[in-house]
């Protein structure tokens, strides 16, 4: 059976940037998800837009896992900067993912701890080693911790809390949920994010302005990733 690289994004801009790379494109629909099959750098790929948030991301990941033989899943998209070394457009490759809004502290657990699975989900090491070889002109690419939660982070205090609690480099809304589903299904995964904004109380303006830039960088990244796989 043919194996695919599953590519999950949240935003239409991210999907279109990657879809423009795909050859032999065909579209199918499963449970109202539009899934695009095609080749990137001669690798068989599936591209799907999950929509925003952890539930949408989890649902999409499980549908891909249930219906296709997957070589791996890669989640690409935009993220908010937490650490000052990052600039708009820079890329963070997730070494570990955490759900910063998961809270069972009432039972004596740390914030972010998920019963049965723990706090952090580690990306597949072999995929990580491929990713660190990728270079994009004028874009800094680094590894780090990515935090996910069902909130678009604009509050500076929230930003500082997430950074200090989890030592996270950037924050977004899907990656750690995808990581959890992949972990439970024993599917290798990697999460890659390009910085589109910095939580500052008004960063939705930055996000709208730089989403296309971040999406282009993600497309450049996946093209090289597929070439290396």
Care to describe what's here?
By secondary structure, the protein is of the alpha/beta class. 34% of the residues lie in helices and 32% in strands. The protein is built from six helices and ten strands. Strands 5-9-8-6-10 form a five-stranded mixed beta barrel, surrounded by five helices. A hairpin with a 2-residue loop joins strand 3 and strand 4 (43-49). Helix 2 runs parallel beside helix 5. The radius of gyration is 16 Å and the shape is globular. The chain starts with a strand and ends with a helix. 44% of the residues are buried. The mean pLDDT is 94.
Topology at a glance:
Layout (H helix, E strand, L loop, with lengths): L3 E6 L2 H8 L3 E8 L2 E8 L2 E7 L4 H14 L2 E12 L9 E9 L20 E3 L2 H7 L9 E8 L7 H11 L3 E3 L2 H11 L3 E9 L5 H26 L1
Parallel strand pairs: 1-4, 1-5, 5-10, 6-8, 8-9
Antiparallel strand pairs: 2-3, 3-4, 5-9, 6-7, 6-10
Helix pairs in contact: 1-6, 2-5
């Amino acid at each position: 059976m043919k194996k695919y690289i599953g590519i999950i994004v949240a935003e239409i801009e991210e999907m279109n940037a990657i879809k423009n790379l795909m050859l032999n494109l065909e579209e199918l629909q499963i449970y109202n998800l539009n899934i695009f099959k095609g080749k990137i750098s001669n690798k068989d790929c599936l591209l799907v837009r999950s929509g925003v948030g952890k539930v949408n991301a989890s649902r999409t990941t499980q549908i891909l896992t249930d219906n296709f033989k997957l070589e791996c899943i890669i989640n690409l998209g935009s993220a908010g900067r937490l650490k000052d070394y990052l600039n708009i457009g820079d890329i963070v490759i997730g070494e570990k993912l955490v759900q910063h809004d998961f809270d069972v502290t009432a039972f004596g657990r740390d914030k972010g701890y998920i019963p049965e699975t723990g706090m952090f989900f580690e990306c597949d090491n072999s995929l990580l080693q491929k990713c660190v070889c990728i270079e994009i002109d004028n874009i800094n690419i680094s590894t780090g911790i990515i935090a996910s939660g069902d909130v678009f982070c604009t509050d500076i205090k929230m930003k500082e809390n997430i950074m200090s609690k989890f030592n996270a480099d950037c924050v977004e809304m899907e990656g750690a949920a995808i990581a959890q589903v992949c972990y439970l299904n024993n599917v290798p995964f990697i999460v890659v994010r390009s910085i589109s904004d910095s939580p500052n109380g008004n960063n939705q303006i930055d996000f709208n302005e730089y989403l296309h830039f971040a999406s282009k960088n993600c497309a450049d990244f996946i093209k090289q990733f597929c070439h290396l796989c």
